[in-house]
Write a structure and sequence with these properties.
Number of helices: 3
Structural class: mainly alpha
Number of strands: 0
Length: 96
C-alpha cells in the first residue's frame, strides 16, 4: 500500500483492497462448502483432493492474470524504475 501511495497510484489502493477482500471471501466460502460437503458424505480424502484441484485452478487463473498484466504494463514499470533511479542517482551526485 505504501508503494502505491509513494508512486502516486492511490486509485489502485481501492482495487487492491477489493480484490484482497474478495479473495478472502471466496476462500472461506469454498472452505465452508467443502466442509459441509465432507460432513454430509463422510469423504475426507476425496474432499481434500477436490480442494487441491480447486486451489490449483484458482492459482492458475491468478498466475495467468499476473503474466498478462505484466506483459501489458511491464515496460511502463521498467521506465518508472529507471526514471526514479536516474533521479535518485543524480540527486546523490549533486549532494556530494
Amino acid at each position: 500500500m505504501r508503494l502505491l501511495h509513494r508512486t502516486s497510484h492511490e486509485e489502485s489502493i481501492k482495487n487492491v483492497c477489493l480484490v484482497s477482500g474478495l479473495g478472502i471471501i471466496v476462500s472461506l466460502s469454498i472452505g465452508g462448502i467443502l466442509f459441509w460437503f465432507t460432513s454430509l458424505m463422510g469423504m475426507i480424502e476425496q474432499t481434500a483432493k477436490l480442494q487441491e484441484i480447486i486451489s490449483s485452478f484458482f492459482a492458475t487463473i491468478l498466475n495467468t492474470t499476473l503474466i498478462v498484466w505484466m506483459t501489458e504494463h511491464g515496460s511502463d514499470k521498467v521506465r518508472d524504475v529507471e526514471k526514479n533511479a536516474e533521479k535518485n542517482l543524480s540527486a546523490g551526485i549533486s549532494d556530494s
